[in-house]
Amino acid sequence: MGEPTDSPSSGRKELQRKLTDLREEHRDLDEAIAALTEPNSANQLRIQRMKKRKLALKDQIAQLESALLPDIIA
Fold first, then answer.
1. C-alpha 53: how far from its chain's center?
2. Which parts of the chain sit beneath pLDDT 50?
């Protein structure tokens, strides 16, 4: 039989997977914001919303990194 799905290592793997997903979305938003801030773009509301989402992702990334940190040190 396999490892239980609620084991510490599966929880850690899930956190790492979530962290990877959040980092990717954060990077994608950064690129989209840069493209929208080109001189010809005038969609400031969309840019503002994307920046807000990007900050929320940054906070979630920091929380997950903090949650993983004790396991890395141990």
1. 10
2. 1-3
Query: pLDDT digits over 48-67, tens only?
Result: 888 999 999 999 999 988 88
∠45-49-55 over CA atoms, to 5°?
145
Q: How many whole angstroms separate alpha carbon 2 and alpha carbon 39? A: 55
Q: Give the residue extent of every domain in the chain.
A: 15-73
Which residues make Cβ contacts (< 8 Å) with residue 71, sequence separation at least 6?
A: 12
Spatial separation of the C-alpha atoms in residues 55 and 49, rounded to whole Å:
10
